[in-house]
Amino acid sequence: MDLNLILSPIENWIEGLDQPLVISGPCSAESEEQLLATARQLKANTNIQVLRAGIWKPRTRPGTFEGVGVVGLKWLQKAKEETGLLTAVEVANAEHVELALKFGVDILWVGARTTVNPFSVQEVADALRGYDVPVLVKNPINPDLQLWIGALERINQAGITKLGAIHRGFSPMSGSQYRNDPQWEIPIELKRMIPALPMICDPSHIAGNRALIEPVSQKAYDLQMNGVMIESHIDPDNALSDAKQQITPKTLASMLDRLIIRDPETTDVDFELRLKDLRTKIDKIDNELLEVMASRMQVAEEIAMHKKDHNITILQVNRYEEIMNNRVEKGKKLLLKEEFVKNLYEMIHNNSIKRQTEIMNAENKSGETV
Ligand code: PEP
Ligand code: MN
User: Of the residues 56, 66, 90, which should be mutated to test ligand 1's pocket, given the most ligand atoms within 8 Å of the CB?
Assistant: First the structure.
């Protein structure tokens, strides 16, 4: 399906933006004092552009803090008047949109739990019709790029052109070091499909803990994302939601100072020559890799015919395990990560089985030897 989004560049939404956009503020607005003190400290210590606060909180279990509701919008308005920061809140239904706009919120975002539901996204989109407010759409909690694109399309079709995406990671399998797995390939693919779409990273919800916020932010900058959304709180340990992943405005300030913003391009001739040289090497290696892969596939086909002749099943589990263990061990000696080698061989082996099945079926149908 065609991707015909009409998009306005992020520099047009935020006056004077000449560096990555930084959105920060508490996970939740908790009290007027907490929100105002956080906003003041953000203003005093950083030059971030946007103050965020959750007003209505989508919580996994009932009975936990579900946000202060509409009164928080008044506090946000006050913080904006006092600090000059733009404001941003999460909206999940038409009433949220109407209230946020009534109280002068500058940027709205659709949360990960809302993006998964096209009915809710459509309700938000319908409520936005006729307004010229920037809207950021978080990825759905499951790694479904089409669902993310669908939500962006619904909002865009309602006339919102100041539209961006927020990458906040995906519900992980057990054992991940992240609260939400980044799966960087998904936002990269979205950017490839819709290059004009501004992409903001949310390192707080990816990391889930303070230690990982900085490396995730750096990675986002290295991938040329357009900004970051980072949760901050005057007293993170006692935050009513997401306490483990919030940092103080001062910690945020020193982290932002350390982050390196790299140039996408350079006019340095030596750099360009060396890069070209290295890319030529990679091209050559890739060529060899493909040729080796084709030879491997040819041998797999010969094996299929040999098995067919002797009436043997295609998949032999012992052999599969032997290949895996042996290749992982060999990979380790070559300093290749176990996960990488496993994924690679899973793909190679699956493909080989698929090809062998095709060969067997073709033989069966025609009754001839392939
Ligand atoms: C949030 O930003 O506080 C939030 C609830 O995020 P997400 O929708 O990414 O879980
Ligand atoms: Mn949060």
Answer: 90
Residue 59 Cα to ligand 2 midpoint, Å, equals 10
pLDDT of amino acid 363: 56
Q: What local confidence, expressed as pLDDT, does residue 317 receive?
A: 83
Planar angle of CA 349, 355, 357, nearest 5 degrees: 100
From the CB of 249, is ligand 1 less than 6 Å away? no
Tell the burial category of 4 from Cβ atoms under 10 Å away from its Cβ (0-12, 13-18, 19+).
exposed
Atom of ligand 1 nearest to the CA of 57: 5
Which is the closest atom of ligand 1 to the Cα of 204? 2
DSSP 228: E
Any ligand 1 atom below 6 A from CB of 138: yes
pLDDT digits (tens, 9 = 90+) for 214-269: 999 999 999 999 999 999 999 999 999 999 999 999 999 999 999 999 988 888 89
DSSP code of residue 171: P
Domains of the chain: 10-258 (3.20.20.70), 269-360 (1.20.59.10)
pLDDT of 116 over the 70 cut: yes
Q: What pLDDT shows up at residue 362?
A: 79
Prediction pTM value: 0.82
Per-residue pLDDT at 366 exceeds 90: no
With a 6 A CB cut-off, is 167 part of the ligand 1 pocket?
A: no
Ordered DSSP codes for 240-302: SS-GGG-B-HHHHHHHHHH-----S----HHHHHHHHHHHHHHHHHHHHHHHHHHHHHHHHHH
Residue 205 alpha carbon to ligand 1 centre in Å: 7
